[in-house]
Write a structure and sequence with these properties.
Elements: E1 2-9, H1 13-24, E2 29-33, E3 47-48, H2 50-58, H3 62-66, E4 70-72, E5 76-77, E6 80-81, E7 94-96, H4 99-112, E8 116-119, E9 123-128, E10 132-136, E11 141-149, H5 156-161, E12 165-168, E13 173-180, E14 187-191, E15 194-202, E16 205-211, H6 222-233, E17 240-249, E18 252-255, E19 259-260, E20 263-265, E21 271-272, H7 280-299, H8 308-328, H9 336-348, H10 352-363, E22 386-389, E23 392-395, E24 406-409, E25 420-423, E26 431-432, E27 436-437, E28 443-446, E29 452-456, H11 461-468
Parallel strand pairs: 1-2, 1-11, 2-8, 11-20, 24-25
Antiparallel strand pairs: 3-7, 4-7, 5-6, 9-10, 10-11, 12-18, 13-16, 13-17, 14-15, 15-16, 18-21, 19-20, 22-23, 24-28, 26-27, 28-29
Length: 472
């Protein structure tokens, strides 16, 4: 039996990001992934929102992704674009980049950090006692202090842990395919069922997405694909050489708990929803960065109750996102009344305040955890300020590359061996997305995930004790 501190079931974006976070903290973590490589069928998720790019920037790896994707405005509600170019962030855009490449870049980073991966096998079950014994499909057993299920919407880990997956069944199903076609009618159209579209992929290949007239289940066939094309366009454009054919829906479910003892779940294992707005992959990254430092601290001896803050913080934040994906779905229909409603909402979202509010939610830049504290920064992402320090110019996010707690003092120097202490000068404006300008704090305590846990001019040592532990 092989031992690890943490075993992660699933080596997709969520599992990879979580493994990286744990490895940065010096935790022995292993990934179990059924695929031998990071190859992904079809295009899947199409990119990253602004907050996800910031998280990668906090770890010093955003440049790898920016070099291979296309920076562009990607936020939108029911196909209504929401521009964030006026948001106060270094990354006031999204990034178009295929999921397969996102996974490959994350996997390369994780490999650099020395994370062990068990590939070509699944987690088939587990037993909890004073640890977790994890059964693999090849007959081996791994032993860990904690198991984290990042194994998708049909999560074996979630099901065996007995965690209820509550929510709503599908109201609409969609057929999606990537194949070759001859002179397809490119573009998007709407009807009473919803959105249908043909988009070029290059080299004569096309992606077809179609809202089906009635909810269907199971994997579609090539005959169904051709039949759907004939129904919509009067011909099938000679659809052939199909490399990806699948079906998805707007079913929305959210785990009642993100934890059952020594077993936790994150990403799609904890929440599924319509792909409207491109939220899924990004939510998984937010989960991973929130959980990683907490799990690392508990493995190293912190109180187990720290893990309960994972759900306390991420569950309500994710619930807001699930609600907006559900709200967008009905607006994709093409009947006259829905067209009128969508036009009215589109007019409203051209106004500055509504646009910023919705764009903040969809970009992940407005996430605010309820951590108490009087200053509006507390519970929100720390801006990536350009600081002047005794060691020269530093960006705030550069201080987070190895995921420490960081105390930045903008006045007198503060020393505390439990955190990274930085004395800095900053004369610019303090401004947060959606919220706007805030008063400059005398000092801030920044968590490893980039969120402010304390801000003010009082004694920070109690706050450090709360989050990091008592002095040795």
């Amino acid at each position: 039996m092989t031992n690890h501190a943490v075993v992660i079931a699933g080596g997709g974006p969520t599992g990879l990001m979580l493994a990286g976070e744990l490895a940065l903290a010096g935790i022995d973590v292993a990934i179990v992934e059924r695929r031998v490589t990071q190859e992904v069928a079809g295009s899947r998720a199409g990119g990253l929102h602004a907050r996800a790019i910031e998280l990668l920037d906090q770890r010093g790896i955003a440049g790898r992704f920016l070099a291979e994707g296309k920076a562009m405005q990607v936020a939108g509600f029911a196909m209504i674009p929401l521009d964030i170019s006026d948001f106060p962030t270094r990354h006031n855009y999204g990034l178009a980049l295929k999921q397969e490449r996102i996974e490959q870049l994350l996997a390369a980073w994780v490999a650099e950090l020395g994370v062990q991966s068990y590939r070509g096998v699944d987690v088939t079950g587990f037993v909890q006692d004073d640890g977790v014994s994890v059964a693999l499909s090849d007959g081996r057993t791994l032993r860990a202090q904690y198991l984290v299920g990042c194994d998708g919407g049909r999560s074996i880990v979630r099901k065996q842990a007995g965690i209820e997956f509550v929510g709503w069944d599908a109201a609409t199903s969609y057929l999606i395919a990537e194949c070759e076609m001859t002179e397809p009618a490119l573009g998007m159209r709407r009807d009473a069922a919803g959105i249908h579209g043909l988009a070029p992929l290059g080299d004569g290949r096309v992606r077809f997405v179609s809202a089906e007239a009635e909810v269907r289940h199971g994997e579609p066939t090539v005959d169904e694909l051709r039949g759907e094309l004939v129904h919509l366009y009067g011909r099938d454009f000679g659809a052939r050489n199909v490399t990806w054919l699948s079906r998805f829906s707007d079913a929305t479910r959210h785990a009642a708990s993100y934890r059952a003892g020594r077993v936790l779940i994150a990403g799609d294992a904890a929440h599924v929803h319509s792909p409207a707005g491109g939220q899924g992959l990004n939510l998984g990254l937010y989960d991973a960065v929130n959980l990683g430092w907490k799990l690392a601290r508990v493995v190293r001896g912190a109180a187990d109750a720290l893990l309960d803050t994972f759900q306390a913080e991420r569950h309500p934040a994710t619930a807001r996102t699930l609600a907006i994906t559900m709200a967008a779905g009905p607006l994709n229909r093409g009947d006259v009344r829905t067209d009128a409603l969508r036009d009215m909402i589109g007019e409203m979202l051209k106004m500055t305040e509504p646009r910023r509010r919705y764009a903040g939610l969809l970009s992940g830049l407005d996430i605010a955890y309820d951590l108490g504290g009087a200053h509006p920064l507390v519970g929100r992402r720390m801006p990536d300020l350009d600081l002047e320090t005794p060691d020269g110019p530093r960006r705030v996010y550069s201080l987070l590359h190895d995921a420490p707690f960081v105390l930045v003092s903008f006045g007198e120097a503060i020393a505390d061996e439990r955190v990274r202490c930085v004395t800095a000068r900053y004369d610019g404006a303090w401004e947060l997305p959606v919220l706007g300008a805030v008063a400059a704090p005398p000092a801030v305590l920044i968590r490893p995930d980039g969120y402010v846990s304390w801000a003010g001019d009082g004694d920070v040592r109690d706050a450090i004790t709360t989050w990091v532990g008592s002095p040795r």
